[in-house]
């Protein structure tokens, strides 16, 4: 009888083996898959905005955060089950580099292609939502603008730490989804950690590539001057520290930690 899940040691080995795809996968294929990941995270992010725009008034802030995190998890489910290249999840490629299966140069090249593709996909999805005119008036637009402004106003160190905590959970979600052997198990593995990071208020770089441009587009259309909300603040005050934090959280607390525990003894010398 086939096992329903892999052990942690088996999961690390599978992640290391999966990382070898960068040896044969073309740059164009990687870029297209990274575009798809930007779209998928955007689907979850926009749904979270719609669900939470009035939930707190009826159920309280805690329940609203729980609901937002629950629906946002759709994004990683789509990435994992349908297949896509997500920058934050690709922190786990570090395990392959540590084990000598890919070079550090190949790792950095993958990260570079994927983060550009994720950004392009997220911006395109934000433009699609803007052109849909679903949010031009009312509470949803106000929620989107308020969310974007709050993210741009975070101090650098705060955004960095929230980024660390976020991708710690995101990479654990990918780790557990890799361990699961069926679709339902993979979806559940994605749900719990992603719900936890969103409900906790942590910061995800790729989600913010959708949230903040959407707020900027809506504020511009509605003629709103929002303190601290600008394209410069998006890249400088949020995306930079959050991306660095995401890298640290995924690499140190998941990729390196589990490689060290389960595979370092076997690593090439």
TrEMBL record:
| Main location, first listed in the record | membrane
Its annotated compartments are: Membrane
| Membrane topology type | Multi-pass membrane protein
Annotated TM spans: 30-51, 63-87, 108-130, 156-176, 188-212, 239-261
What the entry lists under InterPro entries is as follows: Aquaporin-like (IPR023271), For/NO2_transpt (IPR000292), For/NO2_transpt_CS (IPR024002)
Q: Which domain of life is it from?
A: Bacteria
Q: Which UniProt keywords apply?
A: Membrane, Transmembrane, Transmembrane helix
Sorted alphabetically, which Gene3D superfamilies does this protein's record hold? Glycerol uptake facilitator protein
Quote any Pfam family the record assigns: Form_Nir_trans
Q: Which family does it belong to?
A: Belongs to the FNT transporter (TC 1.A.16) family.
Put simply, this protein is called Formate/nitrite transporter family protein
The species this protein was found in: Geomonas propionica
